[in-house]
Design a protein that fits this description.
The N terminus and C terminus are likely disordered. Strand 7, helix 10 and strand 8 form a beta-alpha-beta unit. With about 500 residues, this protein is α/β, with parallel strands linked by helices.
Length: about 500
């Protein structure tokens, strides 16, 4: 049967809609939303005529992309002291009850056996070290010193292998910690024939180790691991007599440290929490930070403490107090961000009011003897001016009126950030003289020029004076030589040549 459509055209061609009689009823379809959910109602019965609109003359306009306006930053919450809500906060881990319980329980269970049997019994190891023991220790240290990095790495590997629970007491990066261990061993060996000096050094070390969470039970297994590491790297210098000497000396060292730590535990906590209440940038890389400790913090002007930040747990660095003890209990520090200094960069560039730091106990013997009537000569380089300012404040509080002369040095005049504060003290106290010194190039109106120690030497002689030095290690060493040649007796020169004060 032939089709009714025109020849050559397919039925229902979209370009040629079917012809509908003019008298047929027309039904207009309702508008349909873009997305229809649910069943669609059936259309009304009867013939339906579809109306197809003409194509648009121009393509529809595409709307320009719209981006949401950036949201306004939320309003900062009102500042509140942290300690009202969390007086026992300890985000650094070591030192809390869980760590103590874990360490006490496991230290006794995993103690490694000695590497070499001394053959003389434990009673011999409990005797005081002899002069021959000191000779053996120094001889073995001379062999170990060239490979100290490997020996100390092996020592810590033994500790963490046999006592993994104490790993939390140490920082993630152990490079600095390994260096400290060997420096401590060398200092102890060199001071072994100076009992008073050795006890002073080790007592401070024992008190300071409390901030790491060190317990009395840690010392015995540490000693065993130390003996094993030394036996491995001392080579032919190691024998039963050398091991006995090390056991005797280590017993003496550990007993002094334990005694000092236990004595300190009767009167002070192992650390303090301190809330940053003021952060003032003095130069691009120097900040003056004021901290409120959570409880009374005893110290003397000229001393220093160790600080730990929440961003680098278990990494401690030394910083001097920049003011004498104050009635409000606030502590002030001058911090310079040094290259690769984790703690100093965090304190200068990241710390802000409300952050919480941890502080170890005060240490250092660079304090002023107020019973002396001698004039006081002070050399402060860079942020080393911090303890100098603190000592000037303490002298003013005692009201003795002794003559104080401060030489304050930096490379450029712009780096003398504390000069105005020192000048203000000098205006209030006529016994104080302040002399700025600039060693680099650039404008330095009113300042002396040259290296700080040499400038001080030009103003000598300084016989009859007490002297204190604070600043970079090289400046202190050169300054001590200048002062000795200028007539200052060695017993009247005080400084704290602590590497960590400038190490980050």
């Amino acid at each position: 049967m032939a089709s009714a459509e025109a020849p050559g055209r397919l039925p229902l061609d979209p370009l040629d809609p079917p012809q509908v009689p003019a008298d047929a009823p027309t039904a207009v379809l309702p508008a349909v939303p873009d997305l229809v959910l649910g069943p669609v109602a059936p259309a009304a019965p009867g013939p339906v005529r579809q109306v197809i609109p003409d194509p648009p003359a121009q393509p529809p306009a595409v709307p320009a992309p719209s981006f949401p306006e950036p949201a306004a930053p939320p309003a900062a919450p009102a500042f509140r002291p942290l300690f009202t809500d969390a007086p026992g906060l300890n985000w650094a881990g070591p030192g809390d009850g869980w760590s103590h319980a874990w360490a006490v329980q496991t230290l006794a269970e995993n103690r490694p056996a000695p590497a070499i049997d001394p053959g003389t019994g434990s009673a011999a190891a409990e005797l005081p070290p002899t002069a021959r023991d000191i000779e053996l220790i120094r001889a073995s240290l001379a062999v170990v010193e060239p490979v100290a990095d490997r020996a100390t790495a092996h020592f810590y590997a033994l500790i963490f292998l046999h006592h993994p629970e104490v790993r939390a007491l140490f920082p993630a990066a152990m490079d600095v910690q390994r260096d400290r261990l060997f420096r401590a061993l060398l200092a102890a060996a060199r001071s072994a024939d100076d009992p008073d000096g050795l006890r002073t050094y080790l007592s401070a070390l024992g008190r300071g180790h409390r901030r790491y969470g060190t317990l009395t039970g840690h010392y015995a297994p540490v000693g065993e691991c130390l003996v094993q590491a030394l036996a491995r790297y001392a080579g032919s210098r190691w024998d039963a007599a050398t091991e006995l000497a090390w056991r005797r000396v280590y017993r003496l060292v550990s007993s002094i440290m334990i005694e000092a730590a236990e004595e300190a535990a009767r009167t002070s906590p192992p650390w303090w929490h301190g809330e940053v209440v003021r952060h003032e940038r003095r130069t691009r890389d120097v900040a003056v930070i004021t901290v409120r400790p959570d409880q009374a913090y005893p110290f003397r002007a000229g001393q220093y403490t160790s600080l730990e930040t929440p961003w680098w747990p278990r990494v401690w660095r030394h910083f001097s107090f920049a003011s004498a003890p104050r009635p409000d209990g606030l502590l002030t520090f001058h911090v310079k961000a040094v290259q690769a200094g984790w703690v100093s960069n965090a304190l200068v560039h990241r710390a802000a009011p409300g952050d919480v730091l941890r502080l170890g106990p005060a240490a250092g013997a660079m304090t002023v003897d107020h019973t002396s009537g001698a004039g006081l000569l002070c050399l402060g380089g860079g942020t080393g001016i911090a303890p100098i300012r603190a000592m000037v404040e303490e002298v003013a509080e005692h009201g003795v009126g002794r003559a104080v002369e401060v030489f304050y040095g930096a490379r450029r005049a712009a780096e003398l950030y504390e000069l105005d504060g020192l000048y203000e003290l000098a205006r209030r106290h006529p016994w104080l003289i302040v002399r700025p010194v600039v060693s680099g190039t650039g404008p330095a109106e009113g300042a002396l020029t040259g290296e700080l120690p040499e400038v001080v030497g030009r103003f000598g002689p300084w016989d009859g004076r007490d002297a204190v030095l604070s600043g970079p290690a090289a400046m202190i060493r050169r300054g001590v030589g200048v002062l000795l040649r200028s007539g200052v007796p060695p017993e009247r020169i005080r400084h704290d040549l602590v590497g960590d004060l400038a190490a980050g």
